[in-house]
Amino acid sequence: MIRTLRLSDVAIQRGGRLLFEGLSLELAAGQACALTGANGAGKTSLLRAVAGLVDLATGQITFGDLDPADARGGGLHFVGHQDGLKPARTAREELAFWTRWFGGTDASAADAAQALALEPLLDLEVRRLSAGQRRRLALVRALAAPRPLWLLDEPLSPLDASWRLRFGEIMQSHLAGGGMILAAVHDPLPIPARSLEIVA
Amino acid sequence: MSRLGVLLGREITLAWGRGGGPLVSVGFYAGVATLLPLAIGPEADRLAGVALGAAWVALALASLLSLERLFERDYEDGALDLLTFAPTPLELTCAAKCLGQWIATGAPLALAAPIAAIGLGAPVHLAPLIFACALIGGLAFAFVGGIGAALSLGARRGGLLTAVIVLPLFVPPVIFGGGALSAFAGGLPWTAGFALMCAYTAAAVALGPIAMAAACRNALS
């Protein structure tokens, strides 16, 4: 289980352009960090680098003593702009598949759907859901298979005020249980979190 | 059900839900088999002479039709990212996707193959071998086709690129399978060609996922 995340002197280059360099961060169990910065600063790229989807130009990302592949394979959730949900499938089918894929159970999926009041929408095709409802489904998917590290890319942007508050409570509960959150944001997170501004 | 079993089920469901993808391939195959007599003439002798080869080539091309979307949709909507966040190696994930493609598209094509070949004038007693060749050759088409689909991820006109990459890789099973069928029809030893096709398929199943996973990782980064 991931208990620490350490980024040491990280630099990321995309499309031949150096986005940033010299970035270091340490996150322990129960802590959250909000990544801020201008559009194109590299917040999403940093999240994808932590997830192992983007190679580092320099630096290192470690998860305590864990092998990075093992840590990423069983220890993190990534909620990004692209949610991987298939428009023609029902929310229930998608939730069932991803819950199993991430190692959860039908019971945990039902509990997660209840936590974000998604049950009435589960039989709708994903294409019938609004942007906010889709985001709630993506968050339910993460809740259904508990993993310690959440990588969230603008998690609150499509949610209305009441669901932002509710998701804030859920994030707080995740941290209280020893989880960690690294989130790219433009609006402040509704939880106590360190802030790290990414500048070129 | 295991993680890969769940993925396999999803792939089959998505393939059938994707505008009836397998039906498009089978329809294309049936179309070629129907149009061929109109193009080269209805004489039974002439048709019977090309029936096996034409049916076999049409099968390879029909298999190509649905390959483009094997990874591309998951790549575009972010699902491919999420599929990497599991203890399952990406190589096995790619293999499950190809297996799903084969079950959803290759198996219906294998069922259609003897019908098309016999319709073109192939002897009826060839039907079991045509089915077996189409089934096993179709597995090779799915796995080498997956390599092309993965390599063309993110490219503009990826379908064209997939075809350019994949068609040369389709040559060995087309030669071996077609050779086995022709030999059997002519009363000659046919097992060598069939065995070579099986060997090629085994190599494709064993090595293809390694290449696919590397190509997917490259596209994601």
From TrEMBL, chain A:
Its EC number is 3.6.3.41. PANTHER family: ABC TRANSPORTER I FAMILY MEMBER 1. NCBIfam families: ccmA (TIGR01189). The keyword Transport applies. GO terms for biological process: cytochrome complex assembly. Coiled coil: none annotated. It comes from the Bacteria. GO terms for molecular function: ATP binding; ATP hydrolysis activity; transmembrane transporter activity. InterPro entries: AAA+_ATPase (IPR003593), ABC_transporter-like_ATP-bd (IPR003439), ABC_transporter-like_CS (IPR017871), ABC_transptr_haem_export_CcmA (IPR005895), P-loop_NTPase (IPR027417). Keywords: ATP-binding, Cytochrome c-type biogenesis, Hydrolase, Membrane, Nucleotide-binding, Translocase, Transport. Residues 5-198 form the ABC transporter domain. It comes from Phenylobacterium deserti. This is Heme ABC exporter ATP-binding protein CcmA.
UniProtKB/TrEMBL annotation, chain B:
Keywords: Cell inner membrane, Cell membrane, Cytochrome c-type biogenesis, Membrane, Transmembrane, Transmembrane helix, Transport. One of its GO terms (biological process) is cytochrome c biosynthetic process. It is found in: Cell inner membrane. The chain crosses the membrane at residues 20-40, 47-67, 129-153, 160-184, 190-215. GO terms for molecular function: heme transmembrane transporter activity. InterPro entries: Cyt_c_biogenesis_CcmB (IPR003544), Cyt_c_CcmB_bac (IPR026031). It is a multi-pass membrane protein. Its main location: membrane. It comes from the Bacteria. One of its GO terms (cellular component) is plasma membrane. Belongs to the CcmB/CycW/HelB family. Required for the export of heme to the periplasm for the biogenesis of c-type cytochromes. PANTHER family: CYTOCHROME C BIOGENESIS B-RELATED, HEME EXPORTER PROTEIN B. This is Heme exporter protein B. It comes from Phenylobacterium deserti. The gene is ccmB.
